Amino acid sequence: MLELTAEAFKEKITNKLKTDRGIEIGDASDKDIYYVIAAIVNEEIMPQWYDTQKKYEEKNNKQIFYLSMEFLVGNLLQSNLLNCGMLDVSNQALKELGLDPENIYAKEHDAALGNGGLGRLAACFLDSLASLNYAGHGYGIRYRYGLFEQRIINGNQVELPDYWLKNDYPWETKKEDEAVCIHFHGDVHMFKKNDGTLEFNYENTDKVMAIPYDIPIIGYENKVINTLRLWSAEAVYDEQETLATENNEFYHDLDHKHSIEQISGFLYPDDSNHEGKELRLKQQYFLVSSSIQHIIKNFKKNNHTSLRRLPEKVVIQINDTHPSLAIPELMRILMDEENFSWNAAWEVTTKVIAYTNHTTLSEALETWPKGMLEHLLPRIYMIIDEINERFCKGIWYDHEALRDTIPSLAIIADDQVHMARLAIVGSFSVNGVARIHTEILKKQEMKHFYNLFPDRFNNKTNGITHRRWLLQANPNLASLITDVIGPQWIKRPKQLISLLKYSKDSSLLEKFDQVKHENKKILANHIYERTGILVDDQSIFDVQIKRLHEYKRQLLNIFHIIYLYNELKVNPNQDITPRTFIFGAKAAPSYHLAKEVIKLINTVASIVNYDPDIRGKLKVIFLENYNVSLAEKIIPAADISEQISTASKEASGTGNMKLMMNGALTVGTLDGANIEINDLVGNQNMFIFGLTADEVMDYYQHGGFDATAIYNTDDRVKRILDQLNQGEFGSHDIEFKDIYYNILYHNDPYFVLKDFEPYIETHEIVERTYRDRLTWLNMSVTNIAHSGKFSSDRTIREYATDIWKVKQVWG
Ligand SMILES: *Cc1c(COP(=O)(O)O)cnc(C)c1O
C-alpha cells in the first residue's frame, strides 16, 4: 500500500491545480478540486489497470462478461478513493485546506445509467468482482442522457433531461481503435456452397459504429482494476469524411447521423414495465452485437485454438432478458463468420450464456412484435425462428406429455417473440434473485420450462456492496463497528455477526444510538436545505425509497399517514411518538397512477406539515430526484425501512438490505429477500405483516377478495377513500379519483385495503417498541450483525462457484 501523507496529498492537489488547470489553490473552485482529485486517483490506478489486464492475458483464465442495459454506478470519486486506499488521506488533506470533502465529492454528477434495483445490482456486482479478484467485466451502453432528473412542481413530478456528460467525465477513456461495426436492416442472401453447406450474405444494411468507453472498476485495496465498457453509437464515415451508407443518398445527411446517435441517446425510464419501442430493440442489439464481437476478438487474440473452446474461456451473464439477443448473435457469428454448423454453434452458445431473471410480473416480460424484429434484424430473426422450430419439435417428439403446452412455451407465438423463453432455451443457467422468487419461477411462472430443464434453474439471492453502502455511506457506524469487533468485517462481511455478542451491552448500544442520531441530524439539515422544512431529529425516521410502482405500495404507506392525520385531528392531544415519513421515488413518465401517488404524497405533505393541530407530531417529506447519492444520505439516518410490496411481486429488493445493514428495522411483507432477512433475524427483530405470497396467488387464481366489502365495513378505510373521492386533498375534485376508482372498481389489484389493518397494527407495535430504547437498539444491532450475508461478495462467490465455475485470479 502506498503511504501517502495528507501533506503529500495536499502538495499533489496544489501541483495538479497548476499543471492541469493553470490555477492557484486560492482561486480554485470546488469543481477544480474535484477534477484534480479524480486525476490523482487516475494517476494511481492507470498502471494497475494495465497490469491487471496483462495478468489476465498471461493467466488466460476464464473471464466473466456481465451484459446489462443498465449500470447504476452513481458517483465514483469517493468510492474510487475508498477502494484504492486514499479516502482517509484525501478527507484529511481537504479539511486541512479548509474545504469540506463532502462538497468536493458532490461535484460529480451521478452516472444514472439505470432505473433502479436491476441497474444498481449490476454496479454492486462489478465492485464485488474486482474486490474479490475475479476477472469479470461489465458491458453496457453509454447513454448520453441517463435516467431523467425529477423535479417536484406543485406536487407533480416533472422530468428533465439528465445530461450527465455536460462536463468532462474523468473516469472514462475512449478506445477509438477498438470500435466495431453493427448492421441493421438489409437483405439476407443464402447460397449453397460446393460442400452442400449454406452461406449467408447480408446486403444493404445500415451500419453503425460502436465506440467503446472504458471505466475502471477498482477492487478494494487489492490493486485489481477491472473494466466497465460502455458502447456509444456513431455514424460510419468513409475516407472523405462523408457518411458512409450503401448508396450515399444520405450524403452529409445530418438527420441520418442524428438518428444513429439516438441509439445511445437515452436510457428508457421504465422500471419493470415493458416499453415496446423499436429504438429500444435497436439499443439491445447494439449492446449485444458490439459486446460479443469484442469478446470473440479478444478470445482469438489470446487463444490460438478453435472457437469451439470458447466455453472454457468465456461466460456471459445476461442481466434480465434485455441482452438475450446475445444468443442468436453468438449463433450468427459462429455460423456465418466462423463456418460453424448449427449443432456446433448451438453447443458453444448454450455453454457460454447464463440468464438472470428479475421479475414474474407479466407486464414486464419482454416480447417484440415478430415483424419488427424481422425487419430490423433479418438474419437474427431467421436464427430465432430456427431455434424455435427445433425447440418445439423437440418437445413434440421427446416430451409427449408437454405437447399441449407448446403454445405457452414457443419462443415465437401470437406474432410475438418471447424473450424470456429465448433466454431459457439458449442458456445453461437460469437464476432467480431471491429464494421465494426462484421458487415461484419453478413452481408457477416457468414450471414447464423447469420440468424440461430442471438442472438449469438455480437461485442467487441478490446482495449489495457493503463497501459503498456501509463503509463509505456511513463512516461513523463503520468506525464504531470496527472499534467493537475489529476491522476484519471489511474483508469478510459475515464477521459482522460478532456484533451479536455485544447486542445487549447497554453502554455500547448507547453509542450506536448516538451514531444514528448524528446521522439523523445530518439528514435533517439536508432536508432543511432542500425543502425548507424543519424535521424533529428525535422523531422516528420512517423511510420508503424506491421506484414508484403500484406493487411496491407507496399507497399503503400514505394511507397509513392519512389515517394517523385523521386520528390526530379528532384527538390532537394523543400522545404519539413524533414521526417523520421520508419518501424518494421516481415514476415512469407514462405511468399515470404512479404519478398520481406522487402527487398525493406531496399533497398530504403540504397539509400535514403545516396543520397547527398536528403540532409537529407528523412530518411528510418527499425528497425529489431519488438516486444513488440521495440514497447514501438517507439510508444511514433511517429508523424504519418500509418494504411493503404485495407479497410475491418483489423479486428480491436490495433497498431492504442497504437499510438493514445501516441499522434500520424493517416493516415488511413476506416477499423477496425480506423472507431471508426474517430467517436470519427472526420475527422478534423485524415487523412482518400482511398477506403471504401463497395467499395472494390464491386470490388471483380463485378470487374471494372483495375490496368494496372492506370499504363498507372499515370506517378508517372508508374515510380515506371518501376524502380522495370528494376532493378533500385535491386542488380540484377530480384529482385522486383515479386512485379511488382503481381500488374500488378494479378490486384493489395490489391488496392495499386487505393489508391496511395489519399494517396499522404493526405500526402501533413499531411505535411502542421505539419507546423501549434498549429493545430497539438491540434489534437494530442484531440486524446489522446479520446483514453480512447480504453483501454482494457472497452473491458473487455463489455465481462464481455454481454458475461460472471460475476461481479468484490470484491472491
Ligand atoms: C438500491 C436502489 C434501488 C433499489 O431499491 P429497492 O427498494 O430494492 O426497489 C433503487 N434505486 C436506487 C438509487 C438504489 O440505490
TrEMBL record:
Q: What is this protein called?
A: Alpha-1,4 glucan phosphorylase
**GO process terms (BP):** glycogen catabolic process
What is the purpose of this protein? Allosteric enzyme that catalyzes the rate-limiting step in glycogen catabolism, the phosphorolytic cleavage of glycogen to produce glucose-1-phosphate, and plays a central role in maintaining cellular and organismal glucose homeostasis.
Pfam families registered for this protein in UniProt: Phosphorylase
Q: Does the keyword Transferase apply?
A: yes
Any one GO CC term of the record = cytoplasm
Report the catalytic activity: [(1->4)-alpha-D-glucosyl](n) + phosphate = [(1->4)-alpha-D-glucosyl](n-1) + alpha-D-glucose 1-phosphate
Q: Cross-referenced CDD domains, in alphabetical order? A: GT35_Glycogen_Phosphorylase
